[in-house]
Design goal:
The structure holds two protein chains of two kinds. By secondary structure, chain A is of the alpha+beta class. The termini of chain A are far apart. Chain A has two domains: 70 residues; 78 residues, Glutaredoxin. In chain A, helix 1 packs antiparallel against helix 2. By secondary structure, chain B is α/β, with parallel strands linked by helices. Chain B has three domains: 210 residues, Rossmann fold; 84 residues, Ubiquitin-like (UB roll) (Roll); 120 residues, NADH-ubiquinone oxidoreductase 51kDa subunit, iron-sulphur binding domain (de novo design (two linked rop proteins), Up-down Bundle), CATH 1.20.1440.230. Chain B is 44% helix and 12% strand. In chain B, a hairpin with a 6-residue loop joins strand 7 and strand 8. In chain B, helix 2 packs parallel to helix 6, helix 3 runs antiparallel to helix 4 and helix 14 packs antiparallel against helix 15. Classes of the chains: A alpha+beta, B alpha/beta. At the A-B interface, helix 2, helix 4 and helix 5 of A face strand 5, strand 9 and helix 13 of B.
Amino acid sequence: MSANVTNTTDPHLSAGSLYKPADVTLLTLELMAQIDFILESYAMDPTRLVGMLLEIQDVTPKQYLPKEIAVYVGDKLDLPLSRVYDVISFYEALSDVPRADIVIQFCDSVVCKVTGSHKLKVALEGILGIKAGESTKDGKYHLESAPCFGACDISPAIRINGVVYGPLKTEEAVRDVLARFEKGGSLHG
Amino acid sequence: MDNTVSFITKHFDKYDPDNLASFQAIGGFNGLKHALGLTPAALIQIITDSGIQGRGGAAYSTGLKWKQAAAVPGEDKVVICNADEGEPCTFKDRTLMEKDPFRLLEGMAIAGYAVGAKHGYIYLREEYRHLRPRLQNAIDQARAGRWLGNHIQDTNFNFDITLYSGAGAYVCGEGSTLIESMEGKSGRPRIKPPFIKECGLFQKPTLVNNVETLAAAAAIMDYGADAFKAFGTEKSPGTKLISLAGNVRRPGAYEIPFGMTLRAIIETIGGGLEEGRTLRLLQLGGASGSIAPASFLDTPYTYEDLAKAGLDVGSGGILVVDDRTSVIEFLESIQNFFIHESCGKCTPCREGNRQIGRIVARYAAGTPRPDDLETARRFAEIMSSCSFCGLGETAQSALLSAMRHFPEAFKLGAFVEGLEAGAGAKANATAAGVAARETIGKHSFEGERGERV
């Protein structure tokens, strides 16, 4: 397949694909250039696929890896699509479904559990108006649980787009952190 | 915060971790300088003399590991720093890389010189992505300062370091799985043999060491094996970075000499529990470690004393759990973690964790079946003897130790009593279940230390 993956007749996006047609236009020329830059910064070394995909996911809108990007990366690195999906589907930090502009992860491991992660989860769900694993309708926030991210000294903790905040023991503390990301006024309550 | 020491952590807050010059100003890279003046064999002898054991959890003699790695034939060997610190309640490697990244590079270069490797790799977990720029900057500056690269400090020793990233898989902390991930694949363990020391990353002879082990090796080369052995006990020489967390007032990563009691660690370093709370249990070494009741608090923190008590230093995590969490709730959380993190390659781990998870959930709901305890124990034993890698072998440590120390938590009648003591009515079953769990939890804490039921 050529690099011209914005083509809607892409044979990889066959009928019955799980991916919505809207995704087809996702791989813009600008994003393609960003991906190329990332791949080149890793010297196009296919052994560094895990790190590349993480960085590509970071620059992709809604922080996920749609099929057309997986195809594009596989093509560039001369890897079969199954190899790319072996990695995307295995690792917790890589998502093949759209998330949101701001991904909020709360730790559900044992340390945060004994320091009060349940209260934190309830507060987050209440403030955002969504359950864990869901995104807000405006596509701004995505809430998900995550296994221990090594911030047990400031437990209970959350990560917002990869940055850790804690300890968050009260709803006010949670609101204060989220307010830093509040620009469009889409936080409820 | 007395009782802590600084050997591995001596450089903490003494220099700007983003600036090589400030590191050199406090005597940085002295350990490497010293090492390069020795033969690899003499260097390995110093590490062996120090008695240091691997800090990732397996506690294998670092000197012996290096000696074996050096003996493997091959021109092109590699050193991997395992910075995939995934055990819950473990964050000491993060602290080390945040505060003293150059020490880690120094340790890796020393290890490379010792075993005859030309290339080093750091496998950094995704969760520590904020450390990527710091480590990359340290690598770049060290290379510019000729502490990495070709002809390090005008010697014939060539060694360079590349930074790799994980993507959130606990199982990648296992050596061969980490290597699979570094080859751009999903993280599933390899069958052994061939052992990774002979055929590891890119089929090259590979030495894998934990962050703390490498930093400690650099400190030992800097200050000497005797200075290290001045701390600790005869069988557990030196110091250890611990990650103290949970229901203590001052959670954090601390360096302690081996030999302190768990009570001293929790009370004098951790500041003790919150007012009015009592200790339910301790878990040592992360989620894959055993748990113990308060009666174990006077156990000294050494490899040998903990082993006698059925515990393990493991990753160095010390999780303190007070009476707000019941034993069953605790186990449920641990079990959910392992269900999530099992890679699915082997059946004992994949299915065993799932089935034990169902049983623990039934206990949590107050509806265990009469044979559940026996079934869980049987599955746990199959897992520890038949799993493919360390994850499945150790996943049930908490469960089995809970059965030993907290048999009351698994008694069938206890739930009925708890329910009767609660509201009793069916409509209130959930609330009563919670009350029952709390009651049972208290019983288990106050009860005598039970033998295996």
